[in-house]
């Protein structure tokens, strides 16, 4: 602290400021701010703030520029410290903001949210998956099957798993329609193509796709870059991790056209033995930007091949060989591993196509229509040792005088699916009333689930590629919503959001254990939300809201469950206070989420590592979230958050064999304390050091609150260094170094129960990633 404070000894005066949208008052992060005639230049942070310090007295011209807005300058006479506010007006030229406008919250929306800017994403993007980049967001816990943040990763928010977190990309649903899960490994390095992210905790505002039962994550891909550019990112580090990304854009051509492209390749051996990843991705876009019209076509996707590592490690092995991976293991008669099957992989390709049309009719009215199509196909390849023929739908084999009932097989379990539809909204922005009417029609069609035998120890009458199970699923999802904010007088705003949603789901066939299923279910949901916000000053907002959400079961709930699953219902109360000044940003939130028939994880997995869920009776999640940023000076800042919560099953019944109710047990994988911290210091020009700290409290691996089945709390510290220079002929030459788990803590971030034993996913000890960035 003495070193940081000493930087101000010779300071004369400072300029602190805020950049925001003139209409909504929302902060604009990553706006370029420059003192004309000098080499002093900076960008606004996530709360829209910027600062210049150690300035001599005199006359300065402050110039602010942000894509999609009209540039603004202000002349000042500096004889004392100055605070400025730049309220930027939207440029008449249409931009992509309307695409996500309907599904995002702003400062007047009475819900709890966090915005993550492109600047923040770039700082932390060393090639790890997006959940790892978001690790320091409030109430968020990340997981990594391979232990090093590349490959299969996930996130939980307020204790809610990925199946309960609604994810959209440019307003289009990304969650798998049947499983409702989010597989970031299918779109590797999506962070490099992301302009901004908004995380709404709780039910949030109406969105497209399955209802948010813990949070929603809204991604917006790259927006218009008016200047031509080329960028190269290379990273390398522990466990053979390598990442290569190249990006380029034409800038605005002929005042109306722009094209962008990105390719990326990421490889890692993983911390866990053989938990390798080979990931490739692409992003291509082209758009027309007129005064009133924007048309943009986007295609992106990826191909991933990851060695399976979803089995976890039992507690005894965890003490002797943390990196052990039983996937692909082949055993002798004494239970010893003799070798591994080297193609025990998940191989999947996913391609997305989006077309966005935006039209401004007048100063107050605009509309957006988006068409989309996604094609996914791939398989799990597995070595089945000693499997009964009957488990694969095969007859026993007679060899001379003996009958063979089991053998070794290599199988592929396939998923081939298509997802397509349309989303849209009409938006009105007035002095007092803001109104959005929107909705979506989406179809998940002809999704093929099948298993094929590609090798058998005893071939008999089996032919290569023979199917041993197959089924087809399809789902139609339609929703329409209307949401409005109305300002009664200068500082009081009311909010009303009404959504209707219709779901039709059908699936039939034979599943992998040779059980037949035939499911057809329909749902009609009504999801109202209302609230208000009050701004006692320009710097602070008080808000309160209550939201209702309903959602349907997923495919595995029907197939793996012992009884037919019920739809679940949530009532969410959010009360909060937001404060934002030039030096301090702070938010405090109280939430109470009451569930009826919540589908919670049981702690068990199915035969491809997918978590099994079951309805419980009444349950709730309640807590307090505190987050904020303190700017000590232009050289030092501290961003931190903490969540203290209770997550309880009121009357949990374990299963049909144990009907004894457990009262007030803690919900599985729901820590009562989560905290994150980022302490940054700009030691000298163009150099920044950041200490990143994460604490996650104890978590239970089932819903009975069994003290023998827990994940211990963990406290992890990372350090990130970055340095940028501007050589002649380049926009930036950057160097980055990320030291993870600085104190080499042994911990596990996820787990499950098999039988009565706990299995754990160990995370890497001390490791590093280094990055080189070239921008032209």
Distance between the termini: 37 Å
What percent of the residues sit in helical stretches (DSSP H or I)? under 10%
CATH superfamily (homologous) name of the largest domain: TonB-dependent receptor, beta-barrel domain
* Coarse structural class: mainly beta
Report the mean per-residue pLDDT as an integer.
91
**Number of contiguous helices:** 6
Radius of gyration: 27 Å
Which stretches are poorly predicted, pLDDT < 50 over at least 5 residues? 1-11
Largest sheet: 22 strands, antiparallel, barrel
Question: Could you tell me the strand content as a percent range?
Answer: over 45%
CATH topology category name of the largest domain = Maltoporin, Chain A
| CATH architectural label of the largest domain | Beta Barrel
The shape is globular
Count of β-strands: 48
Number of domains: 2
What assembly state would you assign to the polypeptide chains in this entry? single chain
CATH class of the largest domain: Mainly Beta
Q: How would you describe this structure to a colleague?
A:
- This protein has 776 residues and is mainly β.
- The protein has two domains: 1-90, Carboxypeptidase-like, regulatory domain (Immunoglobulin-like), CATH 2.60.40.1120; 216-775, Maltoporin, Chain A (Beta Barrel).
- It has six helices and 48 strands.
- The protein has a 22-stranded antiparallel beta barrel.
- Mean pLDDT is 91; it is low at 1-11.
């Amino acid at each position: 602290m003495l070193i940081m404070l000493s930087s101000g000894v010779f300071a004369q005066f400072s300029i602190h400021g805020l950049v925001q949208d003139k209409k909504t008052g929302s902060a604009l992060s990553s706006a370029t701010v420059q003192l004309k005639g000098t080499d002093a230049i900076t960008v606004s942070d996530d709360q829209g703030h910027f600062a210049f310090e150690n300035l001599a007295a005199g006359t300065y011209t402050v110039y602010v520029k942000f894509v999609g807005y009209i540039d603004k300058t202000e002349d000042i006479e500096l004889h004392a410290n100055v605070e400025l506010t730049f309220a930027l007006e939207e440029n008449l030229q249409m931009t992509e903001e309307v695409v996500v406008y309907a599904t995002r919250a702003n400062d007047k929306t009475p819900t709890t949210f966090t915005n993550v800017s492109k600047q923040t994403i770039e700082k932390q993007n060393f090639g790890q998956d997006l959940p790892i980049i978001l690790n320091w967001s409030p109430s968020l816990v990340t997981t990594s099957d391979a232990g090093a943040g590349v490959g299969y990763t996930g996130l939980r928010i307020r204790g809610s798993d990925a199946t309960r977190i609604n994810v959209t990309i440019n307003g289009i649903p990304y969650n798998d329609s049947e499983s409702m899960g989010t597989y970031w490994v299918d779109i590797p390095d999506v962070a490099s193509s992301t302009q901004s992210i908004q995380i709404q905790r709780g039910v949030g505002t109406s969105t497209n796709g399955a209802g948010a039962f813990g949070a929603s994550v809204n991604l917006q891909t790259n927006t218009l870059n008016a200047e031509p550019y080329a960028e190269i990112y290379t990273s390398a580090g522990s466990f053979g991790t390598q990442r290569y990304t190249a990006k380029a854009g034409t800038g605005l051509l002929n005042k109306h056209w722009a094209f962008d492209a990105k390719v990326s390749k990421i490889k890692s051996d993983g911390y866990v033995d053989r938990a390798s990843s080979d990931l490739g991705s692409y992003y291509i876009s082209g758009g027309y930007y007129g005064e009133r019209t924007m048309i943009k076509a986007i295609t992106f996707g990826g191909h991933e091949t990851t060695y399976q590592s979803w089995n976890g490690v039992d507690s005894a092995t965890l003490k002797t060989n943390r990196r052990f991976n039983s996937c692909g293991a082949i055993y002798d008669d004494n239970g010893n591993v003799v070798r591994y099957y080297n193609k025990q992989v998940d191989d999947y390709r996913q391609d997305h196509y989006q077309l966005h049309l935006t039209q401004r009719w007048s100063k107050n009215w605009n509309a957006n229509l988006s068409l989309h199509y996604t094609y996914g196909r791939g398989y799990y390849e597995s070595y089945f040792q000693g499997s009964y023929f009957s488990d694969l739908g095969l007859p026993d084999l007679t060899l001379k005088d003996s009958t063979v009932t089991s053998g070794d097989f290599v199988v592929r379990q396939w998923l081939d699916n298509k997802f397509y539809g349309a989303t849209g909204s009409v938006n009105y922005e007035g002095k007092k009333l803001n109104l959005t009417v929107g909705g979506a029609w989406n179809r998940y069609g002809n999704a093929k689930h099948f298993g094929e035998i590609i090798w058998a120890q005893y071939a008999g009458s089996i032919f290569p590629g023979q199917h041993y199970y197959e089924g087809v699923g399809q789902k139609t999802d339609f929703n329409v919503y209307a949401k409005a904010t109305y300002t009664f007088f200068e500082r009081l705003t009311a909010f009303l959001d009404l959504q209707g949603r219709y779901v039709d789901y059908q699936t039939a066939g034979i599943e992998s254990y040779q059980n037949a299923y035939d499911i057809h279910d329909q749902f009609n949901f009504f999801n109202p939300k209302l609230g208000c916000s009050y701004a006692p000053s320009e710097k602070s907002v008080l808000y309160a809201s209550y939201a209702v959400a309903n959602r349907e079961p997923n495919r595995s709930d029907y197939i793996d469950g012992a009884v037919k699953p019920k739809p679940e219902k949530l009532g969410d109360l959010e009360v909060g206070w937001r404060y934002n000044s030039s030096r301090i940003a702070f938010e405090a939130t109280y939430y109470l989420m009451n569930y009826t028939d919540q589908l919670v994880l049981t702690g068990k997995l199915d035969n491809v590592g997918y978590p099994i869920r079951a309805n419980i009776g009444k349950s709730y999640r309640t807590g307090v979230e505190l987050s904020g940023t303190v700017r000590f000076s232009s050289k030092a800042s501290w961003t931190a958050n903490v969540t203290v919560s209770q997550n309880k099953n009121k009357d949990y019944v374990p299963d049909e064999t144990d009907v004894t109710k457990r009262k007030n047990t803690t919900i599985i994988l729901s820590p009562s304390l989560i905290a994150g911290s980022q302490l940054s210091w700009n030691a000298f020009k163009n150099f920044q050091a950041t200490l990143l700290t994460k604490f996650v409290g104890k978590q239970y691996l089932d819903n009975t609150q069994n003290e023998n089945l827990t994940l211990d709390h963990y406290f992890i510290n990372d350090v990130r260094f970055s340095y940028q220079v501007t050589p002649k002929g380049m926009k930036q030459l950057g160097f980055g170094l990320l030291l993870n788990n600085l104190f080499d803590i042994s911990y596990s971030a996820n787990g499950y129960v098999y039988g009565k034993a706990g299995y754990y996913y160990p995370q890497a000890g001390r490791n590093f990633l280094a990055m080189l960035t070239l921008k032209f």
